[in-house]
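Handout for the seminar on molecular recognition.
Each group receives one record of this type.
Step one: identify the two inputs.
Step two: read the structure output and locate the region that could contact S-adenosylmethionine.
Step three: write two sentences on what you found, then compare them with the reference statements printed after the record.
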Amino acid sequence: MSKNKRNKHSSRNKAPKGVGVRPSKSLGQNFLIDEGVISEIVEGSSISKDTLVIEIGPGTGALTLPLAEKAGHVTAVELDERVIPGLRVKTFSLGNVDIIHDDILRVDLKELISGNLEKYGLKEVRIVGNLPYYITTPIIMKLLEEDTGAASITVMMQKEVADRIASEPGTKPAGAITYSVHYYADVTKIVDVGRECFYPAPKVDSAVLRLDLRDECPVNVADEDLFFNCIKAGFTHRRKTLLNSLASLGGYEKAAIEKALLRAGIEPERRAESLSMEEFARLADSLKEA
Ligand code: SAM
């Protein structure tokens, strides 16, 4: 794990060569311009010639080309049709890149991945992207919840979100997303990235995380939906005690919630942020019995 922060680039207001389009704020377009960060992402993604890479939001191709040099094949999904012709020209000679014009949130990833693994005779899939920040959480949850078979997901996101995800469940910085991500994956921070490493420079710093998908979840729960709903309810009102915050689950009398908490060995006055993953699992199972 590399902890050094990359922020060597200082050309904050100059469009670097090869960008060629006016960056769209609404599409979250902050293009990477720091070669060091690009190398750290490619190295941190653990890809080889056996790997099918799914790249999210290739933009003008800052990551696409170096990924394609290392990977067996890169399938890149981009929503902005303006950048696609240029990207196709840039990657044509490599012969192992295809670009899909679509919204990543609407793509059937399972079908795309199984089809391309077979088509290109590859052994594993890894997902990589400098994410559009306006939809970071829905993208990460889609990648984790859909059974894509990916070995890892290496993604750039806002530093504040990355730090929340990388924190341990049951600690102060954790949020609902921390539990969801740790349920599905081991989390490693690859690098902190200063805002100067992008064109245009965003207002916040960023960080790259690698999520290595687990073969087995760290806890067994009888009802996954209820488990995640407990976490969500607990963190939606994180200053309230669990006894009060869990009322938003609906369908449970306060007395039943109190009984379920006590049966799970959790004091009703505690708050969500103090619960470990195991305690949330016990709570969900106990509520299921209620
Ligand atoms: N990978 C490029 C880089 O590092 O310079 C661009 C990264 S930029 C932060 C995010 C990219 O995601 C943009 O190219 C944007 O057009 C694209 N994008 C935004 N929303 C998207 C969506 N729903 N599906 C696919 N791509 C999307």
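Reference statements: The beta strands are 5-6, 31-32, 51-56, 73-78, 97-101, 124-130, 152-158, 185-193, 198-199, 206-213. Residues 8-13 have pLDDT under 50 and may be disordered.
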